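Annex B, item 7. Sequence and structure tokens for protein A, then protein B.
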Amino acid sequence: MAINRIQNQALHEIVDPTLGYESDPKVKKMINAIGELAFQCLQSSKELRPCMDDVLETLLDIQSDGKHKSKPEVMDISSLADDVVLLNHDPPPLSPDSNL
């Protein structure tokens, strides 16, 4: 059974040899990551399985060799205190230890 081979780190027994699992470290890394994801997806308990958004993010990360970045989180700053100001135009205040 595939899940047993994944658990026992024996993916080489179920992977098509023409994919280069044994000869290409990058391919081996990707297939191992896919195996880990497959193991998570095959859990019998729904709570232990990743949601499809997480599966997609993981697959994109695997495909991009870890360079995939999810969308940046947008923060609503309208509710922040009035004394929070962006320093776009004015330079920051000088340190009391500066020699100017």
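Protein B:
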Amino acid sequence: MAYWLCITNEDNWRVIKEKNIWGVPERHKNTIAKVKKGDKLLIYIKQENVNGEVKPSRIVAVYETASEVYRDSSRIFKSPKGMGNETFPLRIKLKPVKIFDRPIEFKPLIPKLKFITNKRKWSGHLMGKAMREIPEEDYRLILEYAT
């Protein structure tokens, strides 16, 4: 089993929660191809301005993959600025494990996370990625903060 940090925004988090589907652009096909049924996915929402309020980067849920990767270009996700008409066609069905009552703010975790080797420029470990594999140790650490 592998553990993944899935990077999204507020709008697409609503879609994930409602439809139990994760999708990535074609350019991330090599990454999503490594995901197997039963893997655990942590949903990470990037810092963004929502209705005039800056919401910090945070982890909002954990899911288990319930399918292999499949292709579907139907427009269910909202294409973020700068991504044109992206439909996130490479998708995986999800099964919710836990949607956190209180999101876990990400920045306080940075000093403790093994996968973030450059603690000062930590966003470089996530920037431009749709998802990235993380060590089981980091997954467990994050879940400790969810209680």
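Comment on protein B: The CA atoms of residues 75 and 87 lie 6 Å apart.
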